[in-house]
Amino acid sequence: MVPPVAPAALPPGGTASGPAKPDPRRSLGPAQALALSGVGLKDEHALPLLEGAAAVDFLEVHAENLMVAGGPRLRRLERLRERLPLSIHGVGLSIGGEAPLDEAHLDALDALLRRFEPRWFSEHLAWSSHGGTWLNDLLPVPYDAATLARVCEHVDRVQTRLRRRILLENPSSYVEFERSTMAEGDFIAEVARRTGCGLLLDVNNAYVSGVNHGRDPWALVEALPAGAIGEIHLAGFAEDRDAAGDRLLIDHHGAPVDTAVWRLYERALARLGPVPTLIERDNDVPPLPVLAGEADRARAAQQAVAAPLQEAA
User: Fold this and answer.
1) Are β-strands 167-169 and 120-124 bridged in parallel, bridged antiparallel, or unpaired?
2) What is the DSSP secondary structure assignment for residue 226, as one 8-state letter?
3) What predicted TM-score, i.e. pTM, was given to this entire model?
4) CATH C-level class of 30-312
5) Biggest CA-to-CA distance, the chain
6) What region does 24 belong to: left with phi over 0, alpha with psi -120 to 50, or beta?
7) Is residue 227 predicted with pLDDT exceeding 60?
8) Which residues pair with 129 in a beta bridge?
9) What is the three-class DSSP state of 235?
């Protein structure tokens, strides 16, 4: 049985106006030194996982699917939590939005995190609500000074309310803002520096956005502070053509991880060392052994970069 993992408390000096600002280059803890590989939990895979049918190291669930008082899904997750650590991934905080954060949503999230004590909690650098309307999408933000200040204010509020360090994920995007004055990687790195939050590096998102906007995906990875990256996501994409006939990638989580994304991931690991890695699959979900096979590949890639580090130690 895996003992509950205590949530990360705010560093000494945290106040109601925001947590103290730790150095984002600081390691996120022992998990960063381990080669861990997980999968997103799907209902059809729960029983096989409970029966030990696949060797995965952790599970990810979406917070908004679990904000209920009880029921079989929560009871089943409690049983799985006894076997495997959890990563809880939020999609509804709208951290990049112009409006103040939804405090009722934060309260529900806090209750969920206290119930399941996940090892990681992450959210997106995106917005999904405006003027009281909620959108079923994760929309991009302009990378400028005003947005930076607002995002940092929201991240501070989330970390103060939840009393834990969150991981902020780089988004996939299909449009850019003319008003942006910062590169994406520089913007995210500055959020981490100002707030002390951790980062979730979605390698597929980095690749998708890089191709869509005609820039080198590695520039984003290289700009992020290595010590702040606490988790990595890998997923598949769909490919289309835009109105100009240029290549257009869609982050649809409905295919195996692409070869180009695996190459970018391995290059990232060479810079970062082993980082807990999740295989995302939300559409055309294959049998559990197929996902576990991709998780095995990610674990092996981490072990390959960990071996020289262990020998040097």
Assistant:
1) parallel
2) G
3) 0.86
4) alpha beta
5) 55
6) alpha
7) yes
8) 134
9) coil
